[in-house]
Structures are given as structure tokens and as C-alpha cells.
Specification:
This protein has 4 helices and 2 strands. It is globular. The longest helix is centred in the last third of the chain and has 23 residues. Helix content is 66%, strand content 14%. It has one domain. With 85 residues, the protein is an alpha+beta fold. A hairpin with a 2-residue loop joins β1 and β2. The chain has a two-stranded antiparallel sheet. α2 packs across α4.
């Protein structure tokens, strides 16, 4: 599945995902998550593509999955920020 075309056709509204980690709130928007998805390669991209395809076929909530990915992005960012201190 071509993820660029998928997201163009879905024309998802931009949402803010508020992710709290260790008392810190990270706000990650839909477009940031999509940008990260489009930067993936290989097996990771194939897994994400497969999940999105399944959600699309079942009329699932794409934003629910994007929020899940936003949490992973926030965890990674938070971990990196804590290491830099």
C-alpha cells in the first residue's frame, strides 16, 4: 500500500494527542505522526501499512492507531530528553 496516497485520500483532520509521561505532557499532532510513519522503511513500514489497511477495510478508527503511535514517539522523545540532562 502506498502510504502517501493513503493519507492523501483519507484527508484526516489534524488532532492533538496529549500524552503524559512521568508527569510531563507531550502534545503530538496527527501530521507529526504521519510524517514519522512516512519516514519508516522496510519491516516497520510494512507492519504499519498492514495495520492501516486492516483498519481501513474494517472502517476502524485511524486516529486511535495514530494516538498509539504518538505515545511511542512521546516515550522516545522523553527518554532522549532525560538522557540529555
Amino acid at each position: 500500500m502506498n502510504l502517501e496516497v493513503f493519507f492523501e485520500e483519507k484527508d484526516l483532520d489534524i488532532q492533538c494527542y496529549d500524552i503524559e509521561i512521568d508527569g510531563w505532557t507531550h502534545i503530538i499532532t496527527t501530521d507529526v505522526v504521519i510524517e514519522k510513519i512516512l519516514s519508516t522503511k522496510g519491516d516497520e513500514r510494512a507492519k504499519i501499512s498492514n495495520i492501516l489497511l486492516q483498519l481501513d477495510i474494517c472502517n476502524g478508527d485511524i486516529h486511535h492507531f495514530l494516538r498509539h503511535l504518538a505515545k511511542a514517539i512521546a516515550v522516545q522523545y522523553h527518554s532522549n530528553s532525560m538522557l540529555a540532562k
